Amino acid sequence: MSEQASFPAPGAANDLEEGLALTPKFDDGGLVICVATDAANGDLLMVAHMNAQALAKTIATGEAWYYSRSRRALWRKGETSGHTQRVVEMRVDCDQDAVWIKVEQVAGACHTGRRSCFYRAVPLGQQGRTIKLEFSEDRVFDPKAVYGK
Amino acid sequence: MSEQASFPAPGAANDLEEGLALTPKFDDGGLVICVATDAANGDLLMVAHMNAQALAKTIATGEAWYYSRSRRALWRKGETSGHTQRVVEMRVDCDQDAVWIKVEQVAGACHTGRRSCFYRAVPLGQQGRTIKLEFSEDRVFDPKAVYGK
Q1: Looking at chain A, which terminus has fewer C-beta neighbours within 10 angstroms, N or C?
Q2: Which parts of chain B are beta strand (E)?
Q3: Are A133 and B19 an interchain contact pair (Cβ–Cβ within 8 Å)?
Q4: With 80 as the cut, is the pLDDT of residue A149 above it?
Q5: A60, A89, A120: residue with CB nearest B127
Q6: SS3 at position A31
Q7: pLDDT band for position B5 (cuts 50, 70, 90)
Q8: Contact B121, A91 (CB under 8 A)
């Protein structure tokens, strides 16, 4: 696959919403949102971004590729940690600015060592500036052992 | 609740990731990503954005509020359609720039009439500029009847 990837430009709303062509609506930074859920139980694992190249590679290979905004680099999920994501199913949303992948996650998705990045609950009914969180998930791996200090 | 809402500023990575205070990391537009899944079966319903006010209202009331980037307005989900979302559980991710809500969705989440905005599959293994989609979900309501023409 070429290192460059491109898709047809998005059309009008009806084409975006009811069409049979993938015409991603990339934001000003050239990205779409990607939501990864656990194919085993439906839990949300992580939210990240894909540029055209990451999206094309994910579709072509069935392995999850992302674009890291902080590192400004294409990123194969698990390339450092080994905690890869095999894509079981991919979907695109109505206006084609977000994709959903159901994945088989090795070990954990989160760099902090948890299975999911969403390991803290926000109890409802709280008001005001100070909102307390509750931990709801334990680590499944030791991040220092995987990523180093 | 005041029409203004604010949260403490995000701290260093360790506070963001391991702390017990909600300190959302809003983007340059003052928004965090919100992922809504179906509390009944784990399906992804929609991806949208919340500003500080939408986030505060959602936490306080247990009903989903969003911020519409296109309309530049706070938006209570279902205020036009009646297709509200009662929040069963809320979580925040490691770097606090995304929240996950599990919701009880009335009728459908998508303005096109589907239960989920992710009603088209992207079959894997495709390469090149032209990627074909497949419809994977039928309408659960008639958008013209709900929203008008």
Answers
A1: C
A2: 32-38, 44-50, 65-68, 73-76, 85-92, 98-105, 120-121, 134-135
A3: yes
A4: no
A5: A60
A6: coil
A7: confident
A8: yes
